[in-house]
Amino acid sequence: MGLLSLGTPMTWDDAKKKSDFIHGHGITQFLNVWEKVSGTKKDSEDLLWGDEIEYSIVNMDKNNKVARLSLNAAEILSNLQEDELLQQNYQASWKPEYAKYMIEGTPGLPYGSKLKDLLKVEDNMKLRRKLIREKLGKNEVVVSITAFPTLGAPDFLYPNYYHPNPDPKLISLSPDLFKNIDFRKYEDQLSLEEILDNSKPSCSQSLFIPDQAITDHARFPTLTANIRQRRGSKVAVNLPIYKDHLTPKPFKESIPESISLFVDRFAKHQNKSQPIDKNDNTLYSPSISSGSDGSDSESIYCHSLNEPINQETLKSEYHNNQYTLPEVIVPAKEDHVYLDCMCFGMGCSCLQVTFQASEIQEARFIYDSLAPITPILLALSAGAPAYKGYLVDTDCRWNVISGSVDDRNPIERGLREALPGEIKENGQPFEKINKSRYDSIDSYLSIGPDYAKTGHDNSKKNTFKEKYNDIDLVYDKDIYNNLINHDVDDLLAKHIAHLFIRDPLVIFNELLYQDDENSTDHFENIQSTNWQTLRFKPPPPNSDIGWRIEFRSMEIQLTDFANAAFSIFLLLLTRTIKALNLNFYIPISKIDENMQVAQVRDAARTKKFWFRRNILPLQENEIEDDTYELMTIDQIINGFEDEKGTFPGLLCLVCEYLSKSEVEKDVFNKLNFYINFISKRASGELVTDAVWIRDFITHHKDYKHDSKVHSSIVYDLLTVLEGVNQRRLKDLLKIIDTVGVNGIFSEEEKVKYENEIKTKLEHPSQEQKETNLKKKRIFESLNNCYSKKIKCFKEKETISSSSQDIPIENANSEYVR
């Protein structure tokens, strides 16, 4: 989670007036850091790194077989933080997350730079889960799941006496259905209880999630309210429904309880036989309307679609139980699941990894190199096939969280032109902005691989090409010029100036005036609310932490083994990129395409992604070929051969890096498990968590093939995951398909349960049967790569699965293109 300051937050009306103040001082703070440390360098042998895992606490109602997200997580977090403060050598650190049912956990200290330090990762993740489990209340479990399948569905929260409290004037009601409503008369008819409820304004105005699900820290409800108010309407995300053979056609969500009374009270008095006048836009007043005093105010009927409104004629007869959500709420769509608040995105969990770099140019190169990897690992780690009690036709959280914090107003989203006098507080015009502030990166930062260091003619050096930054980058020209005048180069100046097109969303009164020499709070105010796939992180002031890169696209995994495997693979990949001077550059627009493909159902096994074909350093007299092509994830990770030659695959490159390193046997053997897991996920031999969860739901006895995820199904899913925590054999066997035998069983358990494991493997799931396990690929295992002395790099030479392992201490290789 980003900057967690304490104080009294400003309302949006006050905060927007301080935007230029925050921008100005934020840039000053960045420049102060830049001038002090832009030229410093750390010892490359002592670089640290770490991970961040977001857990969810769930209450298990055994009597009714209902699993609910538990607000008791706040008390558990408090107890964990007290232990962290009081106990010596405590090996975990805890922080709040957006949702009150979530807990963020990181290692107490960063991991070291030695390969043997990699063995600490999974152990520390297991320890963190154990520490949480020790604090759980009765009937509570801890899970690492990307999206809780019934978040926002009826009765999803514990305690279950909290209910959403939306204001009917602010929830994007259909103007045709309610255009004759006199809200003053409506308010006169409210009961005392309803009046008291409405006297406590909701920061999210959600129809589905009460504000009590949001963490109490002032940052979070303020973010929620200010995003909505800056946007001029509620956020709106529509996910396509997964169409099973009994799913209604068209699928239309029912009206939630939070507005059913309102619909019942007023819709029956309307004449619904008249069609909507498509030329009448009076009730679609601008989402941001400028008053004579220059202030922005929310209109009564604000739509929040990123496309023209689909206006429909409503039914001519009133029956409350026949009304559906798309008929009542403008942004809601047929054949989609409608999500309407920040919690649907920020209430999801992810896995993030941060790396130190030795100096700024290395950090920028690693940042650029990891950019094309972000959608690949998003697809490989996919874990979110269900939302609000429905199966959806996507597998990832990314677009949900991107839409849930999208504070762009209609002008910035390109929905309409600015009205006369409709300008920012500083008098500047609003510009169209291509993406939400939570999205993929928009530009590269580095000049590219330093091919000169290979000893070849410097004229052969391949540098960054401007054509790779091929999307329109909106940036603050004044800030850019200021940075350039302080000797910040063009690429980095545009990156920072692009971040600063966003307004500060949370400003604390007590922290407005700061010492810019010794604080970066105003810079981090903007930086930490640009939630992109990667984050380029300057060091804090007066610190030796150095420049860092945060990898942010991955979904959280169900097991500690899988989370460790992805984290370790990323660390090894960054080391490999640097050691072998690899070149992954493709146009940013192709990365954006890949990000969308990555979220398609079962994309890891069924889709292709743009990737650079020639990623190895140029040899002497070799002409650069920077072509890119569509590849499967199996090909990208494991390598392949075709008429063009050999693409080594990322894992063979990691092998090459490891072959030049001193690796102890126990470290090697454990790394082999992690690397093979990544390889098998890529090949499809192991399925993603999203595929496994979807398969669990669709094969459950209570699933009716109508796309609905009943509470009993979620309860049984959580029972299996808790069974994994408790090492119950039947549950360990169930999860083999997504993590593999080595990922779920210890060496002792593999011996103890040998027969049961063998039986399970002899009867694979339908998903595994559909996977072609005989795909020809270059990488098979670390052992095979070592035994062949990394001959996977040689053109037209494959690895034989019958190769005999050789001792690690005798393994060596030469770099052969």
UniProtKB/TrEMBL annotation:
Gene3D superfamilies, sorted: 1.10.8.960, 3.30.590.50
Enzyme class: ligase
Record's keyword annotation contains rRNA processing: no
Catalytic activity: L-cysteine + L-glutamate + ATP = gamma-L-glutamyl-L-cysteine + ADP + phosphate + H(+)
Superkingdom to which the source organism belongs: Eukaryota
GO process terms (BP): glutathione biosynthetic process
GO MF entries: ATP binding; glutamate-cysteine ligase activity
The entry's keywords: ATP-binding, Glutathione biosynthesis, Ligase, Nucleotide-binding
SUPFAM superfamilies the UniProt entry points to: Glutamine synthetase/guanido kinase
Cellular component terms (Gene Ontology): glutamate-cysteine ligase complex
Biased composition (Low complexity): 285-298
Region (Disordered): 272-298
Keyword Ligase carried by entry: yes
Family under the similarity heading: Belongs to the glutamate--cysteine ligase type 3 family.
Protein name, entry field: Glutamate--cysteine ligase
Species the sequence originates in: Piromyces finnis
